[in-house]
Protein: 3-deoxy-7-phosphoheptulonate synthase
Amino acid sequence: GLPTGSVYLDTITPQFVADLNSLAMVGKHTIGSRPHRELASGLSTPVGFQASSDSAQLAVDAVRASAAPHAFLSVSKQGVAGIVETTGNRDCHAVLPVA
Structure:
């Protein structure tokens, strides 16, 4: 097969497409978003957090936050809202810009 990855712009869609991806990305405009960090903590794939050109600290903070367990409101694959508990994702990394 062909490995694929996606940039997750929202926190609902990944529930329905995560099993199709071997890599997830969170863009530089959403790495400070708590829901995106919580989502990353529950994904079973590596997650890259894109750093901005002026600061890598947000990406580093996002990687650390996503490695921790979380509980948050989400949607199941059946479309039912509920509380999701995660164990954290140790496969997160920062993606640094190259000028």
Observations:
- The mean pLDDT is 92.
- The radius of gyration is 13 Å.
